[in-house]
Structure formats: C-alpha cells, structure tokens
From TrEMBL:
<feature type="domain" description="F-box">
    <location>
        <begin position="6"/>
        <end position="52"/>
    </location>
</feature>
<dbReference type="Pfam" id="PF12937">
    <property type="entry name" value="F-box-like"/>
</dbReference>
<dbReference type="InterPro" id="IPR036047">
    <property type="entry name" value="F-box-like_dom_sf"/>
</dbReference>
<protein>
    <recommendedName>
        <fullName>F-box domain-containing protein</fullName>
    </recommendedName>
</protein>
<dbReference type="InterPro" id="IPR001810">
    <property type="entry name" value="F-box_dom"/>
</dbReference>
Length: 559
C-alpha cells in the first residue's frame, strides 16, 4: 500500500510534491526522506522543506507578520545567522541608552521593558533588528502612585497592564489589582471590573499585609501569590488566588498556606506550580467546571537530602523575563511603529525552568551556599502520572513527597551559584548569567557572560543541505576549549548521548544530584560592566547598578 502511494506521489510535479510535504513537521520530513531517492532529492533541494527542518531542529517558530517576510531562502539565511550569533555569543549589534528613571520594580515581557520610579511606569519597546536603529523603537509612560505600588506585570498581546497596590486602610482587603490598558492606561475594556480585590478579610481575617507578592497573567487567567500576611493570632500566612479577569469579580479560588510559599508559575492553562521555601515543588491541576475550579495537588516533589545540621533557607524560580508559557501566546505584538516584529521565537511546547535554592548550617548560619538547577516544564508535567502511581493509596494533603532520587537525578541539571548572585535568566531552552570572577557577592567589577543551550537536538550536528535526515552525534567535549579568538572563549560541554555529570555527593548534599542534562556552554572572553542580566528570544539585556543599587545604564545585545 505504501509502495503504491509512493509511486503515485513521485509521479507528481516537483512543485506539487513540495506543496504536499510542506504540511509535515520537521521530524516527519526526516522520516519521509528515507522512503525513496526521489523524495529524498525533493526534500534536500527544497528551500521551503529545509527551512521547516531547520526550524524544527532549533525548536523555533516563525512569528506571523502582516508584512511580507521575503523569500524563504532569505528567511532561512537569517535563521542560520541568528542561531550562529547565539551559538558563539557574537552579538550583531550593541545598543546602549540611559534609563528614564531608577527603581527596583520592573518587568520585561514581549520585548517591552518597564520600570517604575519617580511617580511613573516607563515602558520601552527594545530594539530587536540587528540591521536597524539602535535606540528604543517606542517609549511611553503612565503615572502611578509609588507610595502604594507593590508590583506590576503586563501582557502586550492583550494590551493588559496589571498594577498591584496596597488597599486603603478603611477597606476590607489586602491589595487592589488594577486592570488597565497597556497603551492608554485607561480601564481595560475587556475586564469585568477595573479593580479586583485580593484577600478579603471577611473570608480571611488579617491585620497587616506588607509582604512580597508575585502576579502573573496567562491568557484569561490572572493569579497572585500574597506572602507574609499577618492574620488573627499574629500568625503569618500566604495566600494564592486566581481569577478569570474577563469574567470574575471574585477569585475563582483562594488557597491558604501556613507553611511559606515563595513562588509560583503556570505550567499550562490548567496547571500551576507552587514552590515552598524548603524547595518542595507542588503541582496543581484544575478540577471542576468553568464556574467553579477546585485545584487538586497532583504531584509533590522533594529536594535532594541534606547532610546533618544543614537546612534549606529559601527557594525561588528564576523568571526573568516572565516565564515563556506566559509570554508565548498566539497573539500579535502591536507595539512596533513600523509593524515589524522579531522573526523567530522558541516553540511553546516546552521550556527550561530555573530553581534557585539556598542552604545554611544550623550551627553556623553565616555558612550559606546557593545553587541553581534547571528542569524542563514537560518533565515536571510528566511526573504527575509517576506520582499517582507511587502514592495512589495516600489521600489529599497526607500524601508524601516524591523523593529526589526518583524524579530528579535523570531530569535536573545542578550548578553551584555562590558568586553569581541570583543572575540566571532563562528563556526557551537557553540560560544566560553574569560570571562573578571576583567571588565577592554583589561585586561591580566587569563580568563575563555564560550562555547555556539545553535544546536536546544540539547533541546532534546541525543539518546541512543534502543531509537533513542524518543528525549525527557530535564529538563529545568534556568542557574542553576548542575555539578561541575575536574576544571570545567558546566551550562546549556534554554534547553527546550521555550527559556529563558527577555521580558523587557534593557537600552539603547527602545524595548525588545526578548526571545533569546535555547542553552547549559558551563563555565570553569579553567582559561587560553589568550587575544584572535578562534575556528573551533575540536579546540579552545588561544592567549596571551603583553601590546604592540605583540603575545607571542598560545595554541591549541584539543577537
């Protein structure tokens, strides 16, 4: 049957064969290429089909645009240049400009950098084209009351700005969540209410709320984690609330925790993750109908065991910019004056997450160590079935944590983080950090950049024209330097079928981390006057602060 179908297909004109095959994915094209010599030749000599394979290999997608993108050959060339820039951390343009203000409350979503200070929220659409102007494409500002501002976030795809402020003393809730238009600062026309009320004291009596909060938007959902709320009896409680902001005046649900919850993230439209200060990862799924959502814990994951006298002090997610599941929507980005937008974006089917943990010794609390580990979102979601299998007989909150030895050793990649402050920015499959060679915490000395790419396909060679179906394993490089020059030292680590790692225990952990994940690592020889770093699909943002923590400058490296 297959042979007959193939015979009919190969008798078609080449243009029609290409049109039929263009509906296949990169993996499907690699398999189809093995059918016969005719199909192989068509795939190997079609720019369109090779472009699909390249995008699939790099786990990228082309962002739709109202403007003509040009011929496929041009777009494929741009994709390869884009990947080469990241592969070697050789930026194609460096843009620097003075910030309009200085502040500690900021966000970076969808190519827009926002900073609060001196009574305003300042927004800048950052340059993304390496061949054009080096200044912000567009800037604007909205007034804000800094005295009561707690936090803010925004979703450019929905023209949504969310401002979290302290509620007035005579009100019966902790925080006001203002839903505004990102472009005009007016009440958002799609919101059911211009202000949502977080933590109502009629349901959850409290005396004082002045702890940190985290707010995040994912399409129709708006969620907030309110920490360190003082309730009756002077107990400290954390609250997690979620709304469908287009239809709900009241939260769909409220979760109350007596143990400290430090962070959260959406894993999917119907799943989210909560992180406790001892590193416990809890995954929740939505259960119920559209009007009443009852979150159920579907997995609890433990950290590696520590040696005697050691304890976890803190844990949080590295999310600069906002996690990709929130940033990668199917909406357009109407924020560039000429209508142009970045061409490429990591696929939304998976992403790397960064978890930062700090441990300390009970008998000497000054003896503290920080670590970061990375894990794929898809791996966390896949653990729910394993957790159910292990603990199906236990009920509800009585369920134990899945030991790290079961879930983490083959899925997590750990690194010490003692002297990198908290500077790991994650986007898609890449991480970037500033290396603090001085080993002095919060040093202002120039720093090198380290970029790591955890795309699983990079254990194979990049497909060349005529060899699309042959993804050959690269020679293993155990951290050896193999290229030097032009101001860069380039290293590749663990590009092989087996990840590079140490099975031994690393003090103060009482069990091994595991072998880690295959990845490519690049360290620049060039140093940068920067103390903070952020990234997205095509830019690295370098911030410099003075000793008073005031922002001085922003450099944008366009890849």
């Amino acid at each position: 049957m297959l042979q007959g179908t193939t015979s009919y297909l190969t008798q078609l004109p080449v243009e029609l064969i290409c049109e039929v095959l263009s509906y296949l994915t990169a993996n499907e094209l690699a398999r189809v290429r093995q059918i016969c010599k005719v199909i192989r030749a068509v795939v190997d000599h079609s720019e369109q089909l090779q472009y699909i394979i390249d995008l699939g290999f790099l786990r990228m997608l082309e962002i739709p645009s109202d403007r003509c993108r040009g011929p496929v050959a041009t777009r494929r060339k741009e994709l390869r240049e884009f990947e080469t820039s990241w592969r070697n951390v050789r930026y194609r343009r460096k843009c620097d400009f003075q910030l309009l203000t200085s502040g500690l409350v900021y966000d970076f979503v969808g190519g827009i950098y926002a900073l609060a200070g001196e009574g305003y929220l300042h927004f800048s659409v950052l340059p993304h084209n390496p061949h054009e102007d080096s200044q912000p494409i567009r800037t604007w500002s909205h007034p804000v009351d800094m005295a009561i501002l707690i936090d803010f976030t925004f979703c450019p795809a929905q023209d949504l700005l969310v401002i979290v402020s302290l509620a007035a003393n005579d009100h019966h809730h902790c925080y006001d969540l203002h839903l505004r238009s990102l472009s005009t600062n007016k009440s958002h026309p799609g919101a059911v209410s211009s202000v949502l009320k977080a933590v109502n004291d009629r349901q959850y009596p409290f005396y004082h709320a002045n702890g940190p909060v985290k707010v995040q938007v994912l399409d129709k959902y708006l969620a907030i984690l309110c920490r360190e709320v003082v309730v009756e009896g002077d107990e400290i409680t954390d609250y997690f609330q979620l709304w469908e902001w287009r239809t709900d005046k009241d939260a769909k649900f409220t979760m109350q925790f007596t143990e400290s919850m430090t962070d959260f993230i959406f894993l999917a439209e119907d799943r989210f993750l909560l992180l406790a200060d001892d590193g416990t990862i809890s995954i929740f799924s939505f259960v119920g109908d559209q009007n009443l959502i009852d979150p159920q814990c579907t997995a609890k994951l433990a950290m590696p065991a520590l040696m005697r006298d050691w304890h976890f002090a803190d844990a949080f997610l590295g999310g600069n910019p906002a996690p990709a599941i929130g940033a990668m929507t199917n909406f357009s980005r109407p924020w560039v004056e000429n209508g142009e937008s970045p061409m490429f974006h990591p696929t939304a089917d998976d992403q790397l997450l960064a978890f930062h943990v700090t441990v300390y010794r009970m008998t000497n609390e000054d003896d503290m160590h920080s670590y970061v580990f990375f894990v794929f979102r898809s791996e966390l979601l896949g653990l729910q079935s394993l957790y159910e299998k292990e603990f199906r007989k236990q009920e509800g909150s009585q369920r134990s944590c899945l030991p790290y030895s079961i879930w983490g050793r083959s899925r997590a990649h750990w690194s010490p983080g003692n002297y990198v402050d908290w500077q790991n920015s994650v986007y898609g499959y890449r991480t970037v950090e500033l290396l603090n060679d001085s080993q002095i915490l919060f040093s202002t000395e120039p720093r090198r950049l380290r970029v790591r790419d955890f795309n699983p396909n990079l254990r194979y060679s990049f497909p060349r024209v005529g060899e699309s179906g042959h993804l050959c394993p690269l020679e293993r490089r155990h951290g050896s330097q193999f290229e030097r020059g032009n101001g860069y030292s380039v290293y590749r680590i663990g590009i092989s079928a087996e990840a590079i790692g140490s099975p031994a225990c690393i003090k103060p952990f009482a069990e091994p981390w595991g072998n880690g994940l295959p990845h490519r690592e690049v360290v620049t020889e060039e140093t940068f006057n920067a103390t903070e770093v952020m990234m997205d699909e095509g830019r690295i943002l370098l911030f410099s602060r003075d000793t008073s923590k005031d922002l001085l400058n922003l450099d944008v490296l366009v890849m």
